Amino acid sequence: MTNRRILLYGALTAGLLATLAPFAWMFLGSVRPTGDIVARPSSWLPAAPTLTNFEQLLSKQNFGLYFFNSTLVAVACVLGNLLFCSMAGYAFAKLEFAGKRLLFGLVLTMLIIPGVTTFVPLFVLVSNMGLSNSYLGLILPFLVTPLGVFLMRQFIRDVPDSLVEAARLDGAGEVRTFLRVILPLCRPALATLAILTFLAQWNNFLWPLVIAQTEDHYTLPVALALFSVGANGTDYGLLLAGAVTVVTPIILLFLALQRHFIQGIASTGIK
Questions:
Q1: Contact by Cβ (8 Å): 268, 246
Q2: Which of 5, 127, 223, 255 is at 20 to 30 A from 138, Cα to Cα?
Q3: Strands 229-230 and 233-234
Q4: Structure confidence at residue 271 (pLDDT)
């Protein structure tokens, strides 16, 4: 093994350890009392592992409702993006219509505009529609995303035109061509879009915090931020247990779709 390869493997190993260290601290801290976490000097390994933090978390009032809210919002946004972004991507990639370049240019423009700049106008718009403090208000603004449209357009553009033309010659309309020809070939891109959308919405904190004005519409990140802070300060053990609860579904989803995710990233030009 050459010195260059040894250095490369060493750098990759160091990068991997640096990436995994916060997750290791989170999982190990979730089975430690808060006193041990904030003790100085602190240690990585718990002296006496305990599930008290998880028991305390699950015993919180309405925890099941918060988990349901997060799941509902994330799944609804994923389904909406899979449908609408793939439809828009197909139109931009394979159809010709007036204003196509202008509309796609607007999509690309939205990719470079920070979301925080549109946050207040979006909140005013949703509030004026009477959707504040509702599930529809949590979901509707994120049913279609510019990144999703761009990703699907890039992938569908590489689908051979001959397949689309053959379907049309067989008498298939655009809807049938889209459902029977395009979508089955888009599994890697759809898996990538599903993971990215689920991750964004499952971890979304600021929008649910603003739009959900009562506890019955809180999502997990908002609820954890609120009930992990008590009269004596932040309960870090409870907070870390909540973080483990929040991150576990994301890890499981990625493990289930990682092959399609990697293929989708490699084939859509998202570097």
A1: no
A2: 255
A3: antiparallel
A4: 43
Whether the full predicted model's pTM is greater than 0.85, yes or no, is: no
Region for 62 from its dihedrals, namely left if φ exceeds 0, alpha if ψ lies in -120 to 50, beta otherwise: left
Dist. CA 43–CA 23, nearest whole Å: 15
CB-hemisphere CA count at 13 Å for 30? 18
> What pLDDT is recorded for position 268?
53
Residue 219 CA to residue 221 CA, distance in Å, equals 6
Nearest by Cα to 149 from 95, 97, 108: 108
Identify the CA nearest to 30 among candidates 243, 233, 250, 222.
Answer: 243
Q: How far apart are CA 217 and CA 223, in angstroms?
A: 10
How is 15-43 classified by DSSP, letter by letter?
Answer: HHHHHHHHHHHHHHHTTS-HHHHH-SS--
Cβ neighbors of 107 (< 8 A, separation 6 or more) are: 92, 146, 149, 150
Query: What confidence score (pLDDT) does residue 260 get?
Result: 66
* Sign of torsion over alpha carbons 107, 109, 111, 116: negative
Residue 43 CA: distances (Å) to CA of 21, 24, 248: 13, 12, 24
Looking at residue 168, its pLDDT comes to 84
Spatial separation of the C-alpha atoms in residues 13 and 2, rounded to whole Å = 17
Query: According to the model, what pLDDT value does residue 267 have?
Result: 57
Mean pLDDT by groups of 10 residues along the chain of 271 residues: 82 90 85 76 75 79 85 94 93 89 91 86 91 92 92 89 85 85 87 89 90 88 76 73 84 77 58 43
